[in-house]
Amino acid sequence: MKLLNEISSKVSHMQAEMSAIKIIQQDLQQVRSDISELKATFNTKLDHLNNRMDDIDTRVSAVEHLGKDVEELKSQVKELLNERYKNEQWVRRSNIQINGIPEKAGENLLKIVKSLADHSGFSLNPESDIDFATRVAVKNDTDQKKTKPIIVKMQSRYKKDDFLSSLRKMKHMKASDIGFLGSDSRVYFNDHLSAQNKYLLQKAKIKAKEKNYAFCWVRNCTIMVRKSDKSPVIHITTEESLNKIV
To answer: Which SUPFAM superfamilies does the UniProt record give (predicted)?
Structure first.
């Protein structure tokens, strides 16, 4: 009887252990199932992340390509602007700008120019040497009472260069010297610069003064600077060329 009880007890114990093992097996199966689901979810999210990364790479490449296009367009615009500035100066290549001549109603500008030529000792025939002469307003000049300069367009650029050279010798000339009695207005003569070149000339003068350059001048509508009479001449043709003044 005692043996039967022991056997029954062991059987019950084994049955309990078997039940526990089954529960553990079920838990393991659940864990495996959960892990499988997590793995599937992770793979899905990883695929989604990879797709996002691919999309980002594509967009970055597009932006980089766009950046190159923008730089190329900026370069082309810069070239076009420089070409436009050259053309604007080119059409003024035969012009002389005369400043300081008082304005009068009914004035004869050709006669005034002829008086200047005679005073400088230059042989000038207005009918054959001059295309036209006119007054022009100075751009961005807020002083409306300021005398408008005279622009003289010569028929020949070479004649213009010779005439301007002759006029510039009269460094201390006043309007009264050619009949404008009572006027002490100083008269001076320049190449007729485009708006861009006037801007560059102003910048060049400022920077040349800052860097102790001795010379800054215009010849044949070209701006030039020179540190000393033994230094090389620097031509200022674009805003970037101002960086050569060091």
So the answer is: Prefoldin
Of 135 and 29, the structure prediction assigns the larger pLDDT to 135
Q: Is the pTM of this model over 0.85?
A: no
Query: Of all helices (H) and strands (E), which one includes residue 58?
Result: helix 2-90
Residues recorded for the chain: 246
pLDDT band, very low/low/confident/very high, at 62 (cuts 50, 70, 90): confident
Pull the structure tokens for residue 145: 């009472």
> CATH code for 92-192?
3.30.70.1820
Among 158, 141, 145, smallest CA distance to 96 is for 158
Q: Report pLDDT for 32.
A: 77
Cβ(202)–Cβ(239) below 8 Å: no
d(CA 40, CA 186): 92
- Residue 76, burial from CB neighbour count under 10 angstroms (0-12, 13-18, 19+): exposed
Picking from 217, 223, 190, the residue whose alpha carbon sits closest to that of residue 99 is 190
Q: What are the two backbone dihedrals, phi and then psi, of residue 108, each rounded to the nearest 5 degrees?
A: -110, 100
What SS3 string covers 92-108? Answer: CCCEEEEECCCCCCCCC
